[in-house]
Amino acid sequence: MRWGLATAGAALGLAQAAAGTAAQACALQLLEHRSGRELLRLPHPAGAAAPAPELRLAFEHSVLGTTVIDRYRFTPRPVLVEEEFEGEGYGLPAAAGPGERLERLGPAGARQRLVLQRPVDPLVVRALPAQGMRLLLPGGALPLAALGAAAVEIRAEGCPAAAP
Q1: What are the pLDDT digits (tens) for 55-79?
Q2: How many of the other CB atoms lie within 10 Å of CB of 59?
Q3: DSSP-derived pairing of the beta strands 123-126 and 67-74
Q4: CA-CA distances (angstroms) from residue 127 to 27, 40, 119, 143, 155?
Q5: Whole-angstrom Cα distance, residue 133 to residue 142?
Q6: Strand arrangement, sheet containing 123-126
Q7: Would you say 7 and 139 are in contact if contact means Cβ atoms under 8 Å apart?
Q8: Which end of the chain has the lower number of beta carbons within 10 A, N or C?
């Protein structure tokens, strides 16, 4: 299940309108790390009855310049369940560890996917403009640097837990 908003601009506009009403419903909460100031709250499209939420974060690898996409599931704590990437080298997996699976994607196998279950709590993302750190939404991407914080903590609030 992905978070539903038409565009990144709509996500930013929704923050003020939804801040009071979404407190009880399943929502993705983006906070300024350390201060805890809420930057944005994105309601889950199916509300509190939805399965445990997932999100996808994309960024450009600082050395290779290729796109990396990380998928997290909230169980209720954030767990990295998949990393999709292209290339080999610094910061990218070369082999799967115990309980992990590394897959080649597509006919040429240039892209790879590491399937894993790695807790990442708290989930804190450096909103570096040079890496184009962005939250992928069905209607587009929300650049985290646009939120005005150097580091963004991401939580799921009011959502049911899922099995890891």
Answers
A1: 999 999 988 999 999 999 998 899 9
A2: 19
A3: unpaired
A4: 20, 14, 20, 8, 16
A5: 9
A6: 38-43, 27-32, 151-157, 123-126
A7: yes
A8: C
Q: Against a cut of 0.85, is the pTM above it? A: no
115-131 CB burial, b ≥16 within 10 A, e <16: ebeeeeeebebebeeeb
Retrieve residue 37's tokens. 């100031």
Nearest to 56 by CA among 1, 100, 17: 1
Residue pLDDT, tens place only, 83-113 = 999 988 888 888 899 999 999 998 887 899 9
- Cβ-contact 57, 136 below 8 angstroms: yes
What does the DSSP assignment read for 45-97? TTGGGSPPPEEEEEEE-TTT--EEEEEEEESSSEEEEEEEEES-STTS-SS--
Distance CA(64)–CA(129), nearest Å, equals: 16
- The kind and range of the H/E element at 8 are helix 8-18
